[in-house]
């Protein structure tokens, strides 16, 4: 990877040769000092592989047109811009915010003794923007903002669940077993949320939604544990602790999201099946609400997944690979993160038991996932996991031919 | 389809497994449990299968991806597919 470049634009008419600077965290950095008169030509002729991380523009070098010239070229959208002038105490001019100027700094910032520190700060800011796959210029343009209201307005209210109205006579041992298993399986939320925040630590949009997701999922264990408590069954907290240890985070975000698309779709189908086979009205209501939650989560995960896949074919391949792995293999029962990743977990067996209530419920869930896969691959012919594997072969062949 | 010996297939599988997992081919014994190899997981298994399919221009069943445990078993499954596709592998 070439060294990042920073540029000091001064009002001189003399072009200085490029220098190299060594910054502790980032290593070698190229420092260009183009002449003011050459600014437009410099920007247009800069090698396309150059990562122009930051620019310092002297206040004496007509900063407004210089910044405009930079921002008019989309490849420099994320380049950090600093205006260098003696007067840093006054209000930042309106155009500075409009053109995404990072700061107004004193000349000492670009003097030899201060330059390394200034470059390090600028590179940190630039790297933060570059590592966010779903970065948008403006906060409210991010997908989190677009789906937030949908989530806020469709969340169930605790008032909808009246635990004092449980019909105890309508409960049997099997229902209590399913309910206990479902509550325990839902404890997988916490390590899942920990991992989301670790895997997306340099990102804002999905991470913000992951907090919403975690808050909703944590209600699933709670509402079922409270129901159990009401009928005299105490849920042990060990299930939420050592039985749900952290697991290694995923390698590719779109693959992690596909895994969650599938598990949410399956969870929704299993809750629907449970609700359809129970007559006790309070738990039926709870399971219907949770089925709706999981279906909402499935859709939201798919929105973030498609956003990543649309921006990068490697994400598409990773997501399709994960879809194949999870849809094609039911040799050891239905895969779900809560049953797969924890050494002490009993959830795989629990999910298998719940699945017995309606054997075709997971088939229906997977059929919905296949419709998401078709959209993702932009291929209406995909019907089965075998078709997904054939698609992956085709994508590999095409990428090998390029 | 060219005739291919089972031994050739085994060596090809070993090479693909080693390349995909970034380990030496010598570390992949014919009877080593693939799941015991570093970094081997379902995604790597799929990637190896896709490369094998492309190499021999065949398609293997889903169960081969998930149930095959050694290079020897994997090569045998591929030899069967090749044979069914019309070219008898040399034994």
Characterization of the model:
With 402 residues, chain A is of the alpha/beta class. Chain A has helices spanning 39-45, 63-71, 94-98, 115-130, 143-153, 173-185, 189-199, 205-230, 253-276, 281-311, 313-328, 337-340, 347-355, 361-377, 385-401; strands spanning 5-9, 16-23, 27-33, 52-58, 80-84, 101-105. A 6-stranded mixed β-sheet of chain A has the order 2-3-1-4-5-6, with helices on both faces. In chain A, helix 3 links the parallel strand 5 (80-84) and strand 6 (101-105). The two termini of chain A are 22 Å apart. Chain B has a single domain (6-84), classed as ACP-like (Non-ribosomal Peptide Synthetase Peptidyl Carrier Protein, Chain A, Orthogonal Bundle). Chain B is globular and about 35 Å long. Chain B has 91 residues and is mainly α. In chain B, helix 1 (6-21) packs across helix 2 and helix 1 (6-21) packs across helix 4.
Short overview:
The complex is a heterodimer of chains A (402) and B (91). Chain A has 402 residues and is of the alpha/beta class.
